[in-house]
Amino acid sequence: MVNRRTLFVALIAFLAAIVGVSVGRVLIPTHAAKGSELHELLHHDLKLDANQQAKLDALEQRFAVRRQALELEMRADNVRLADAIEAEHGNGPRVSAAVDASHRAMGELQKETLAHIFAMRQILRTDQAAVFDRAVVKALTTDAR
In CATH, what class is 2-141? Predict the structure, then answer.
């Protein structure tokens, strides 16, 4: 009896881990790869002047703090989802609420990321903004095509 229960709890924990990893793989790597392309473009290809660079550094510092907070919130949501799955053993109200909370945090991160992109764009000259815009569109559509 104890072995069966232990196996069941282990299975639920494994399923919760798979859900967490899946959510993380969907969100985090995609943003990191796209962010690094834009980072490379901003810091190396656009030839920012000192004033632009200082503004960019300030924007990046503020966004890093906000992004980290939202990523921690998503990790906490994953823990709550795992707890709900373990408690309900199905798609019950706690699981549904945990999924909804996770989606809210993901949506907030996406909104904050877009606000950050638009803020970065504001410090660019017209010629730089055109290059930046093409890079943003490419980053958002590369996997879709």
Answer: mainly alpha
